[in-house]
Amino acid sequence: MVNLNSSSKVLTEDEIHSLLPNIELLPLIEKAFTLYSNSQVQLPPVTELNFENPSGDVHIKCASVKEMPYYVVKIASGFYENPGKGISSSQGLMLLFDSETGCTSAVLLDNGYLTDVRTGLAGAVCAKYLAPKNITQIGIVGAGIQAQMQLKYLKTVTACRKVSVWARSETGLKKFLDEIDHEYWDITSTNHLQELAENSNLIVTTTPSQEYLLRKEWIKPGTHITAVGSDTPHKIELDPALVAHSDLVVVDSIEQCKFRGELYQMYNHQLTPKKEVVELGKVIRDRSLGRKNDTEITIADLTGIATQDLMIAQGVYETYLK
Amino acid sequence: MVNLNSSSKVLTEDEIHSLLPNIELLPLIEKAFTLYSNSQVQLPPVTELNFENPSGDVHIKCASVKEMPYYVVKIASGFYENPGKGISSSQGLMLLFDSETGCTSAVLLDNGYLTDVRTGLAGAVCAKYLAPKNITQIGIVGAGIQAQMQLKYLKTVTACRKVSVWARSETGLKKFLDEIDHEYWDITSTNHLQELAENSNLIVTTTPSQEYLLRKEWIKPGTHITAVGSDTPHKIELDPALVAHSDLVVVDSIEQCKFRGELYQMYNHQLTPKKEVVELGKVIRDRSLGRKNDTEITIADLTGIATQDLMIAQGVYETYLK
């Protein structure tokens, strides 16, 4: 860490990595959702820049919460040819500003890592509140950095160690299997997504797919699916009919999911949900709004909200200041 | 400067100050406007956060230009009670990212200074292309940091040294007069805005006023007015009738000025301009689109566009790299 002037601190990715184990992350991300659904939040629409050749998308998110000391601006990008250059596809940084003066408090040069972490944590929050009591197998769709993150944080909310993983890319899958902790996880890979779907009752989808992967007829009663991959109007991972016919759809932000993600895709296919869509923050505050029994099919559609960025950035910065 | 990792450079405000004199700034800002009006630009709408108690507004702007090496994200805030705390009301920073990978290239911790500079330069560009040939007196409305910046860069485009300044705040005005270079400028202050308006043929308005200051009947033929203060839907400095009845209205961005600034205010008063509104970038490329003679009243409405941020941030960073 270097004090560049009296007011702005710059934290490197290494410093951020070393601070994270000292932070109780899951409650921070739960709070991010309850704060958001409390409406004490300013959370403007996501700003996007899109690139071709090489293809990439950049999302700029920001949020302020009444009476919080900082507001956050977060830039997160996905440049999907990066791995071929030996660079993570996710890049970006988080910024904290003083809510009373606008002064730059902290620059977290995380190179996209904190976005990956808070998205992984959001998956764990969904599993905690929406998965069936007895998770028999976790199905992970995709084998990128987010697939790793999901498993990392699912560890903290479920005892299930049985995992099936599917990915379109053989090399991606190999890398994932090379890096995963085989001592902890009882993991198998499959070429058959249907098989994964039929044998898992907690499924997490983590791909940037532009056509849907999971079909309605593959999903057995009692399954919970968290879809984290689709965060633009073009990406989709779930059969729109699956979303429409599930017993419960939970989203991070009803407003944001009107314009991106699985819920947007479902509406775009002229379908409507079986029951009123509920925000995750409301389920966290009142579990009775969540899963009713072990036969319901529940879906969580996460597009990522900036209060998650605010809470994790603030958590890192306050831990650094201690 | 500190190399925090292989890819991100962080420049402090002091370093930025020391680099600026080595940069040909005016052509950079001219290019910012011509690039923008060339439509090779992605420039999403401004994102805003608003704060009460203390009151402040935060603008997040971003831009990418085809085939440029970087894209920019800029956060600029105005917290109007800051000066009472000994802090500039303008705060913020600029970020450059690699257009091919999304990696963070540079963090310019300018605390809002580069935004002030590029806005000052935009005023000079407007004067260069739109002011009458013979400037007899410069009228400066407001006495904050932007009033100083406007004069600083007007020096580079006009030989006129006669200035009249008006400000609502006596203390602001005193501070401005204390800090201005009296050797260079023949400066007088006035309590009568009408007098300033009637005796100046280049007027620059730099306030965050929420009711208009300059009346139509005060402005004499041949005057050019650059309005830089209003950059939100609530701020206004010019009588909407003055905008509507002027011979030419030039804006930085037609799209953006539909939603903020003087042109927005004019439309909001159900008025229409005498002639088609022209973008500054088009006037720079084709002077015949600008002032026709020395009797026209011309107006430039600047709300600030992110290609200005891109060009100045890139100029600073590339000069640093040399």
UniProtKB/TrEMBL annotation, chains A, B:
A GO CC term assigned to this protein in UniProt: cytoplasm
Name the record gives this protein: Ornithine cyclodeaminase
